[in-house]
Design brief:
Blueprint lengths: L2 E6 L4 H5 L13 H14 L6 E4 L3 H11 L27 H4 L3 H8 L12 H23 L4 E6 L1 H11 L17 E6 L4 E8 L28 H4 L1
Parallel strand pairs: 1-3, 2-3
Antiparallel strand pairs: 1-4, 4-5
Helix pairs in contact: 2-3, 6-7
């Protein structure tokens, strides 16, 4: 089974000011966000990625570029429309402080499966199209490069949270229990019997173990010995 590394884009000017950017064009990483993405690129430099797939929005493509800058190989770099941000409809462009006064806000917090944003997308549809895209891309990379293939998907907070909820077997109504910070790394492997979530919302730590060997399908009884860093990482 291949391994997908889910990376949220770095902090943006909209994040810094509490604005719900949604699919607004021209929302870019600020300096902190660029630094965050560069650190993520450094963490991933030890792994020969076969692909870096990005949401079409600028902030994700910027993040993807900063990851690619640290790669010595030539991973493919497709843009995937189904990994784009949720369509927040009329909520887009408003401040989170203002939106928190809306009646729908509490439903977003407690029962997101029932939410359709006014003039926009339902959260259930958002999860369905993003999970389908990740599973389709993952199967394609594994078919082309083998079970040791590692690839990156650069997307958005709610998108990644919904993908992780699916991988964890959680109902969408529980996905607000998951946090996904800017430029964070989460790691999922899809197996024949079930997905395995190896990491969620990490912003530090060695990832060289991803390059060591192809994963096994079975979970270790008792927890196993954990991932071992490569000799270079220990030096």
């Amino acid at each position: 089974m291949a391994t997908v590394i889910l990376v949220r884009h770095g902090r943006t000017t909209a994040n810094a000011t509490g604005l719900l950017a949604g699919r607004t064009a021209g929302v870019l990483l600020d300096q902190i966000g660029r630094d965050q993405a560069a650190v993520t690129g450094e963490r991933l430099a030890a792994v020969a990625l076969v692909g870096v797939v990005s949401s079409p929005l600028e902030r994700c493509r910027q993040t993807a570029t900063l990851i690619l800058d640290q790669q010595t190989g030539s991973p493919v770099t497709p843009v995937e429309n189904d990994l784009t941000e949720c369509d927040y409809g009329h909520w887009q462009g408003r401040t989170l402080k203002d939106l928190s006064q809306e009646n729908l806000w509490s439903v977003v917090q407690t029962q997101p499966s029932a939410v359709t944003f006014p003039g926009g997308e339902s959260m259930a549809a958002m999860q369905a199209r993003s999970v389908a895209a990740i599973r389709r891309l993952d199967a394609g990379f594994e078919a082309e490069h083998g079970p040791g293939a590692v690839w990156v998907a650069v997307s958005h907070g709610d998108i990644i949270k919904s993908i992780l909820a699916d991988a964890l077997g959680m109902h969408l109504d529980l996905f607000q229990r998951i946090n996904v910070g800017p430029a964070s790394v989460s790691i999922v492997q899809y197996g024949a019997s079930r997905p395995t979530v190896h990491a969620s919302n990490t912003d530090a730590g060695d990832l060289s173990w991803l390059a060591a060997s192809a994963p096994t399908a079975d979970a270790p009884v008792g927890g196993g010995a954990g991932h071992q860093p490569t000799p270079a990482a220990r030096a």
